[in-house]
Every structure is written in structure tokens, then in C-alpha cells.
């Protein structure tokens, strides 16, 4: 969330070449840090799941997982397109120097949305979050200068982190512990593909219409992915982890059967 604003600010004050090297160094440092920390991919009650062997892909890489990967792709396609649309709209208005401020608003509201969503005890379906993200993105095309654009992107920022979090949660629920690393890699690939294709797709929409059309294209891409994910999810609902009360009930039933 901090990256885009920091890159724009540094590129304007230092040089794009230095920023490119800095970003590359940050990626390497982050990879080394994760390797050293070696965070677990399984919960404590799943510690022995890997000893049972890797389940066949056909058992977990089904319609439900494809739905989540589609929504992962759609989310980053939308977010990548929004970044381009912000720059294009402000360039048309002669206010491109304010792009960093708009991106900062996006980042701050996204962090706030992620913290609030993580604090609540309930969750929303991934397709619903992505659909709402697409809906609140489209009206940003009505903004005409940077102050109004800051207001218009608040909804997009607020729903960005919760949607990405919901995608990750859905992948974790659908993937057995023994293949969670592979599933997470597929999720990362889908999201990277969305980042790579979002800007060209929205760029074409901007070229054939107006800069404000970039927000409409990004929002519609998110809505299309949400609709696809919803239809596929109906065929294979995402499993939810049992609540503590259900676990206690299951334990009681197991004890009864043993007796």
C-alpha cells in the first residue's frame, strides 16, 4: 500500500533509475527476510497434515479454487487499472503532480479498511467484496480535479485490502495443508497476471474513450471477475473452518462414538 506513493515521490525527487534499483533491492531484502523468518504454512492442528502425503491436484484444484484465482486476478486487474486511471485523469487536468497525494489516500484508506475488516468477527464472501469494489470504483470517473478524486477513491481504497485478504483466506480454506505452498503460488501468479494486464487493458479503454473511462474499465473488470467467481462458487462453495462450538460438539460426538 505504501509502495506506489513512495515510488512516485522518490521518482519525482531523485530519479526513476535510482528508484528502480531501490525497488529491486527491497524485493530481494524482503525475500531474504521471509526466508530467514520461515513462517509456517500450517496451523498447529495441521502440523501432521503434511506427513499424509500430497493430495492429488484434482481433489483441491477444482471449480472452487478456480473461482478464487479468477477473483484474485480480477482484484489486481482493477487496482492496477485504477493507478493508471488516476495518472491519466490528472494529466488531462494538468494536475499530474498531485498523483502522489491521490495514491497516498488510496493507501491510507486501504490500510484502514484492512484493519477494520480484520477486527470484526464476521466476514463477507469474496465475490461480494470484489463486486462492491468494482461498483465504488466506477463513479470515480465523475471527478474533475485532484481534491474530488481524493474523495472518489476512498471507497476503492477502503475495500482493496479486505478483498485481497478475503482472497487469501479463501485459498487457505480450499487448499489442504500439504499443498498450501503450491496453492499460494498459484494465487500469487494470478495476482501478478492481474497487475500485468490491468494497465494495458485500462490503457486501451483510455485511448478509445477518455481518461475518466479508465475507472469504468477497471470497475467493470472487477465486476466481471466477481460475477464469474460468484457463479463458480455456487457450484463449489468455499468451506469454512468450524467454530469453537462446532469443534466442541464434534469432540463430544466422537467421545460418544468411542464409548
Automatic annotation (TrEMBL):
Q: Where is this region: Disordered?
A: 238-259
Output the superkingdom of the source species.
Bacteria
- Please list every transmembrane segment annotated in the UniProt record, as residue ranges: 6-37, 63-90, 96-117, 124-140, 146-167
User: Which InterPro entries is this protein grouped with?
Assistant: MFS, MFS_trans_sf
Biased composition of type Basic and acidic residues is found at 245-259
One Pfam family, short name: MFS_1
Q: Which GO terms describe its molecular function?
A: transmembrane transporter activity
Alphabetically sorted, this entry's keywords are:
Membrane, Transmembrane, Transmembrane helix
The UniProt record lists the keyword Transmembrane helix: yes
Task: Please identify the protein, giving its name as recorded.
Answer: MFS transporter
